[in-house]
Amino acid sequence: MLHFPTTPNHRRGYVCVLGSYAEALTMTVKRIPVAGETLIGRDYRQEYGGKGSDMAVQASRLGADVSYLGVVGNDAFGQRFRDLMEREYVDTRGLRITSERPTGVGMILKDEQARNVIAVDMGANELFRPEDIDRGFSQINESDVVLAQLEIPLETALYGLKRAKEAGKTTVLNPAPALDLRGQDLSDVDFITPNETESRLCVGLAPDADIDNASVAARLQKQGVKNVIITLGEQGSVCFRENLPALNLPAFSIDEVDSNGAGDSFNAAFCVGLAETANVEYAMTLAAAASSLSCTKWETVPSYHDRRAVDEFLRTHALQA
Hints:
By secondary structure, this protein is α/β, with parallel strands linked by helices. The protein has one domain (51-94, 126-316): Ribokinase (UDP-N-acetylmuramoyl-L-alanine:D-glutamate ligase, 3-Layer(aba) Sandwich). Helix content is 33%, strand content 23%. Strands 5-4-1-8-9-10-11-12-13 form a 9-stranded mixed sheet, with helices on both faces. Strands 3-2-6-7 form a 4-stranded mixed sheet. The protein is globular.
């Protein structure tokens, strides 16, 4: 059993999220309908969605100062997002509200066998432009770590990380949903954080390509990425570091209820850890603990624990050998 020490003495970190938001409209049906069929559903609910939104909430609950740059529509869903950010103490001075497109939305049908079908319209997220990065640069400049993901235009994500690097910040790219990143200059990315499937898609391979993780990481590093963290689910995570041996971190043993949103929790917590200590092993362990706890509750935002709970988890649990 590998034990990790309790939270070290650290400064309060500041994380800036280049974000996305999509309202999740969910309904349960007896079975997935076929084309042209109408079914009566039940348990309709509206839930908060979007990787950027998830990451901002989790980072704030872990005690970081958090700012959010992004775009939402001038509509009821956009207002719900703004209300959420206010409750979670996230600075939204860098949020643009537009009437050009509605707030992003996802429509989800879940059946009684836990299968689902999902359709997503990213809406206003697709209007997040480099000019929005320039407009909100003061939030980037105040931060320690800048975190981007790919539910926003790739051009905007990479431009935001470039501006952050120019300002001397640590940059993290979570390449999800995964894109083929071949040909992209990734030299402004300090850490890229795909899971195994995403890592292969990022280098132009099939998601189940028979290639080892070290080789995938090497391909990404040839494009300029300094450190590649690949998350491995129940097997933990591994960080392929620039000019250092790979760092393997086992997972925590938990009784999993729902893993939805665990990846967003991992990324947010990793950035909080980096912002506080600049210690990669500590940041990865904090991320493993937060994401593990998120799997003990349903949905995304409702499953994210606060710092007190995560610190207690670290004190009382051990990483699997």
